[in-house]
Amino acid sequence: MSTPERYHHVLIGTGQATGTLIAGLPDDESIAIVEGGAIGGTCVNAGCTPTKTLVASARVAQFARRGAEYGVDVGDVSVDFAAAMARMNAVRHGSRDGLTGYLTTKPNVTLIRGWARFTGPKTVRVGERELVGERVYLNVGARAVEPPIPGLADVPWLDNVRILDLEALPEHLVVIGASYVALELGQVFRRFGARVTVIEAASHALPREDADVASEVRAILEREGMRFEVGSGVAKVARDGEGVVVELQNGTRIAGSHLLVATGRRPNTDRLDLHLAGVETNERGYVTVDAHTRTSAEGVYALGDVNGRGAFTHTSVHDAQVLLDHLRGSGPEDANGAAGEARTIGERDTVYALFTDPPLGRVGLNEAQARERGHRVLRAVKPMKTISRAKEMGETQGFVKVLVDADTDRFLGASVLGVTGDEVIGLFALAMSAGMTTAQFRRVVLPHPTVGELMPWVLDGLKPLD
To answer: What is the pTM of this model?
Structure first.
């Protein structure tokens, strides 16, 4: 039995919350960071950084093909798949190396490579080392679900990690699932030159979005040649020579060269022996936390995807900010140095983006959620083709939709599907966070010509939601 190593703070996992937390903890307190996988977690290694790098390459290829629309003759367009993947690897490895350098050069930080398991309250074992922390933080993230599809274990299927290691472009990529990972990567590989078929058991792609939003996203992708099979689940999969065949419950058979499974995520809590630390999880394995990221065990906190309170880098970073506020006893300072109220997880609005091209920016409630919560809803919709900057850019696909509470005149939610939608959604997120009414929002003057400048004008079309 090794002698226990004692630290003020023990962090398990190096996802995006870790860097934020480390930067905010006192420099004179000892910190142990434990990581059994790649430094940086999902975002740096298999999520935001590599996938958005590929999205950028695919966007350049698509624009080159459209050159004639802009009076630019570029000739035949081809994609060097190996070069695009090499660029992706250079970017993600650079990000990972930068974070590794930061963690290994802070004098009060000890980076320990290996998988951690609890052996008791605030005590974890990593190989032969036993670590005891005054506070312990779980930031272990999540991984792709392996759905119980007959035959799946017998075929070489891809998830969001393995697909980034491909050395050759698939001839025909079959995708099970039609949410964010599926559609982003599906469009990337279609633009690189692969045939792509997306399978979704629900009645429409993006089943968590309003039907009109999902329908428009699908239409955009279909115009680029992607094929969709919706409304029937997968009955089984099997090898088909060097490829795979997917049989749907309605009898349809789809043969492809590669299979990507993107049907959800599960938390990485199964290897931690959380029960030995008194840390409770819900029925899906996510760690239960309060508004300050505290778990059921004294001195143990859970941040990021593993707590089930957000599945994005920005929510993970916000978790760390919330926790730091809790530890300090106050929130961000104002311009005069006066400390504000500590932040909580519950106060944030849901905001995210689907990084297809054009992207979808989302904040707040969708129509179904607004109805379920009993709001009297006003809705306004404005097509992107009516926005001058979108027309000037030749990017007129999509629309803007805004939902407003008729009783309070405050925003309930917004969807911006179109060019710069991932950026423009920030206007509505800011308005909602500030509690602005639509009357106040209309008073804002924004620069011309931009897509964002038309957002106050969208409100002219507010009508009761049927």
So the answer is: 0.95
